[in-house]
């Protein structure tokens, strides 16, 4: 992907005249799709309609079908592999940027899904990342503040790391076990009873193919689209994911609504190829910030954000930041998520901190992205919710569990 192509891609994403052309974006390659997916979260400076449109790239990309699909699957496995299946449905039930999923049934009777990579993305993806990194560094040379405010290099590194992890489906197995192990060790400390993980058939899986239990349920994405997500379930997702983010610091790195399936009363985390970890300073600081924000303690928020920074500010610098932050949040009390986006206000807060002299840990984007997903779910499913007030019910539980949590 040449620099001119990057410019065209960003023009497509930021067009004010029309919605982005998803077919065009897909044709530019995997990196273009991943960039567009990242901007699907940026309701802080893109319209809601643009973000919703870009979010289709998470689970509604063009599938490989017919003879091409059959030949691709045959190239990944040997003939003996097919002998384990009673049937494999030809029509995919899902297609994302990296892989697609087909229902199947084993001869032993279990219903499963087969996920496989749609093609060999790695070589072109790595080449495109190198090109974009050079482009970003060129821009930063002339506008160095961009690195501090937006951290484009850190965001690109995050995209690179989690995408390369996704391109080896064995990571989905490995990371799923890590999250499940954390779940199992802490279920007596914290209520994680509604969280489940699908069974993986490791003997039938490889770098390019993954066979797992078929979960007969609906994705959160579908439930949101059909207006079938109740507030209690939305808050339970925050409750579960908040445990991993705030208390453990190891969490599902791509928990968008298409990667959670609700079956009966349980939530299944799927597509665990990307896993994220956050440093203890950021983890503690963000929890303290959210804790203070839930009770509209903006003085406490200002100190929590400063303590979260690698380079803190003090004296007149802090006082100036403090006053600007109070001004930023003067209209925040008792507002619903549709009136004021938590994501947008947090991005503005971090930007204010950077402009005031704070320097944050490189690679902070994964945890911000995680909060964006949760905020987006609430915004789409329960727009009249005062999220900060709803969060209060979990804060004491988080505080108590933090003393005993096993990482």
From TrEMBL:
<dbReference type="GO" id="GO:0005524">
    <property type="term" value="F:ATP binding"/>
</dbReference>
<feature type="domain" description="Protein kinase">
    <location>
        <begin position="87"/>
        <end position="407"/>
    </location>
</feature>
<dbReference type="GO" id="GO:0004672">
    <property type="term" value="F:protein kinase activity"/>
</dbReference>
<comment type="similarity">
    <text>Belongs to the protein kinase superfamily. ADCK protein kinase family.</text>
</comment>
<protein>
    <recommendedName>
        <fullName>Protein kinase domain-containing protein</fullName>
    </recommendedName>
</protein>
<dbReference type="InterPro" id="IPR004147">
    <property type="entry name" value="ABC1_dom"/>
</dbReference>
<dbReference type="Pfam" id="PF03109">
    <property type="entry name" value="ABC1"/>
</dbReference>
<dbReference type="InterPro" id="IPR011009">
    <property type="entry name" value="Kinase-like_dom_sf"/>
</dbReference>
<dbReference type="InterPro" id="IPR000719">
    <property type="entry name" value="Prot_kinase_dom"/>
</dbReference>
<dbReference type="InterPro" id="IPR050154">
    <property type="entry name" value="UbiB_kinase"/>
</dbReference>
């Amino acid at each position: 992907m040449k620099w001119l192509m990057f410019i065209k891609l960003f023009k497509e994403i930021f067009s004010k005249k029309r919605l982005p052309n998803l077919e065009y974006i897909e044709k530019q390659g995997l990196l273009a799709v991943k960039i567009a997916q990242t901007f699907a979260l940026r309701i802080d400076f893109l319209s809601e309609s643009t973000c919703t449109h870009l979010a289709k790239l998470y689970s509604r990309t063009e599938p490989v079908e017919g003879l091409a699909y059959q030949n691709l699957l045959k190239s990944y496995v040997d003939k003996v592999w097919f002998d384990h299946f009673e049937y494999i449905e030809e029509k995919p039930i899902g297609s994302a940027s990296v892989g697609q999923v087909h229902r199947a049934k084993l001869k032993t009777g279990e219903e499963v899904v087969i996920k496989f990579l749609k093609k060999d993305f790695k070589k072109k993806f790595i080449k495109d990342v190198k090109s974009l990194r050079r482009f970003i560094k060129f821009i930063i040379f002339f506008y160095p503040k961009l690195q501090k405010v937006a951290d484009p290099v850190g965001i690109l590194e995050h995209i690179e790391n989690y995408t390369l992890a996704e391109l080896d489906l064995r990571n989905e197995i490995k990371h799923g076990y890590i999250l499940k192990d954390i779940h199992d060790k802490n279920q007596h400390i914290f209520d994680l009873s509604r969280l489940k993980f699908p069974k993986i058939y490791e003997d039938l899986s490889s770098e390019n193919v993954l066979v797992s239990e078929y979960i007969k349920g609906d994705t959160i994405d579908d439930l949101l689209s059909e207006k079938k997500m109740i507030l209690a379930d939305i808050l339970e997702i925050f409750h579960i994911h908040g445990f991993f983010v705030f208390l453990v610091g190891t969490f599902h790195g791509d928990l968008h609504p298409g990667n959670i399936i609700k079956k009966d009363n349980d939530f299944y985390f799927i597509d665990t190829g990307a896993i994220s970890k956050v440093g203890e300073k950021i983890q503690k600081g963000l929890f303290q910030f959210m804790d203070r924000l839930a009770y509209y303690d903006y003085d406490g928020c200002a100190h929590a954000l400063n303590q979260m920074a690698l380079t803190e500010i003090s004296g007149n610098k802090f006082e100036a930041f403090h006053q600007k932050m109070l001004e930023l949040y003067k209209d925040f009390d008792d507002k619903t998520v549709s009136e004021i986006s938590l994501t947008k206000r947090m991005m503005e807060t971090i930007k204010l901190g950077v402009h005031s002299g704070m320097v944050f840990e490189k690679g902070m984007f994964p945890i911000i992205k995680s909060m964006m997903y949760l905020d987006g779910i609430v915004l789409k499913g329960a727009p009249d919710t005062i999220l900060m007030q709803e969060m209060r019910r979990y804060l004491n539980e988080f505080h108590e569990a933090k003393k005993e949590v096993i990482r």
